[in-house]
Amino acid sequence: MPTLSRFLVILATLAGLVYAGMLALATFVQPVERDVTIRLPAERVNKAP
User: b/e string for 12-49 if b means 16 or more Cβ within 10 A?
Assistant: First the structure.
């Protein structure tokens, strides 16, 4: 059983580190807003039914 306990503790520690990293990224990194322009060919827009 000691190996199972050690394995679960390691998994819990890794999960905590991943969660802390995600929380830090969500808190400290601000997204940059910018305009996006997508050009569509006229054939795709003006299709005749």
Answer: eeeeeeeeeeeeeeeeeeeeeeeeeeeeeeeeeeeeee
pLDDT of residue 31 exceeding 90, the answer is no
Q: Which amino acid is at 17?
A: L
What torsion do the CA atoms of 18, 20, 23, 25 make, to the nearest 10 degrees? -70
**pTM confidence score:** 0.58
The secondary structure of 11-32 as a DSSP string is: HHHHHHHHHHHHHHHHHHPPPP
